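REVIEWER CHECKLIST
Item 1: Sequence provided? yes
Item 2: Single chain? yes
Item 3: Sequence as submitted:
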Amino acid sequence: MNVVWSDLSAPEQWLSLLGSALILIAYALMVSRPHLGRIYYTMSLVGGICLLVTAGIYRNAGLMILELAWIGINLWGLRRT
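Item 4: Structure as written out by the authors:
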């Protein structure tokens, strides 16, 4: 699969952008409003899953490992809240 950045017609590109946005927004909100952690952990978890799917499509092993770790951290956070 040879997709360039400008090819936003591919569904996996939109999934990747959604995942990134969810993770970044959740992190920013967690820093500013930590008392709502469960919501932010869930947002970040969904974002990580989106990016894991995208990493699988593109066979990006490094990103897959990163996202698996991110998913695990968010699951751990959800168990603690």
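Item 5: Key structural point noted by reviewer: The chain has one domain: 12-80.
Item 6: Recommendation: ____
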